[in-house]
Amino acid sequence: MIRAGIIGATGYAGAELVRILLAHPEVEVVWYGSRSYVDQPFARQYGNFLKLVDNVCSDDNLEALSHEADVIFTATPQGLCASLVNDDILSRCKIIDLSADFRLKDVSVYEEWYKIDHAAPQYLDEAVYGLCEINREDVKKARLIANPGCYTTCSILSLYPLVKEGLIDPDTIIIDAKSGTSGAGRGAKVANLYCEVNENIKAYGVTNHRHTPEIEEQLGYAAGHPLTLNFTPHLVPMNRGILVTAYASLKGQNGDAGLPTADQIHAVYKKYYGDEPFIRLLDDSVTAETRWVEGSNYVDIGFRIDPRTHRVIVMGALDNLVKGAAGQAVQNMNLAFGLPETCGLEMPPLFP
């Protein structure tokens, strides 16, 4: 059995990790870390775990946990994991960090967008960006995995094949994304109160959302050169879900007559994702909807070509707490420990 510890277990992503790992046939959770609820029963914070989890919450002592666990999940705010990790800890266990501490390779970009000093830049080159569908082989060998976020996962996976194959002009990409309120975390904030969110939709982080450089960096690797795009997130009054609608100009070799067709784009998506267990490619009569991925590790992706504007519109949907956080972290763990990638993650979506 893999012994797993969770730092930040009482946040939404941490609790989702608990839910998934409790049903995982190869894992035992040995540490429910929560700085806010030390020595309090975990099930008192999340009543859905009553009679399922008898443990009390521990602190965020990564050093002590590394002696008990084979893998540590850090579902914590930016800066904490980087401030605690060291060579001794990494020599004893693997770390899967759900924060942004090790996602960006350029420390100056991280510090510019997150407004904090990076406490462990020496590990940036080693850390593997844990988007399994793209970096699967590197994840298998990693001891420090940077688990991508929800917006980034949906945006990158939706566009990656088109960028990689040069079918779109990457500098024309516009990403319009929408998230349920659980993506903002469990902390008390006025902007996330029921009366503030209900019956409302709003854009936020316009031109400066901190997931922007992460999406640009990863799609830049696919393009083979740096790129710049527009990313605008929106908050919608639902618990879970990410919906991305991305726009880009098609790119051909011989003017409009050489632009890729729908059949060619379908073929490219099938080339990259046809065998992926958690990506579902939609046919032309279906658009991605958050309700059909809720509670699951699936990503639904579809597209349309607009012949009038010579643009492609790509739509992707995922559950921000599963494939956008905890499920993806477990998928990374499976790869890192040589387990079947789908182990513990084949739960069907919930509806209604």
Helix amount, in percent?
A: 25-40%
**End-to-end gap:** 34 Å
Count of individual domains: 2
The overall pLDDT, averaged over residues, is: 96
Q: What's the total helix number?
A: 12
Strand order of the largest sheet: 8-9-7-10-13-12-11
Helical/strand content category: alpha/beta
Approximate shape: globular
| CATH architecture verdict of the largest domain | 2-Layer Sandwich
Question: Residue ranges: pLDDT <50 for 5 or more in a row?
Answer: none
Cα gyration radius (Å)? 20 Å
CATH structural fold name of the largest domain: Dihydrodipicolinate Reductase, domain 2
- Can you identify the CATH superfamily of the largest domain? Dihydrodipicolinate Reductase, domain 2
Strand tally: 13
Describe the largest sheet.
Answer: 7 strands, mixed
SSE ordering: EHEHHEHHEHEHEHEHEHEEHEEEH
What are the main properties of this structure?
352 residues; alpha/beta; Rossmann fold; Dihydrodipicolinate Reductase, domain 2; 2 domains; 7-stranded mixed sheet; 6-stranded parallel sheet; 12 helices
Give a written overview of the molecule.
α7 (132-140) runs parallel beside α12 (322-336). This protein has helices spanning 12-22, 42-45, 62-66, 80-84, 87-92, 107-114, 132-140, 150-164, 194-197, 212-223, 262-273, 322-336; strands at 2-7, 27-33, 71-74, 94-97, 128-129, 144-146, 174-179, 202-203, 230-235, 242-249, 279-281, 299-306, 311-318. The chain has twelve helices and 13 strands. The two termini are 34 Å apart. The relative contact order is 0.14. The protein is globular. The strands form two sheets. It has a seven-stranded mixed beta sheet with strand order 8-9-7-10-13-12-11. A six-stranded parallel beta sheet has the order 2-1-3-4-6-5. It folds into two domains: 2-126, Rossmann fold; 151-320, Dihydrodipicolinate Reductase, domain 2. A hairpin with a 4-residue loop joins β12 and β13. The chain has 352 residues and is α/β, with parallel strands linked by helices. The mean pLDDT is 96.
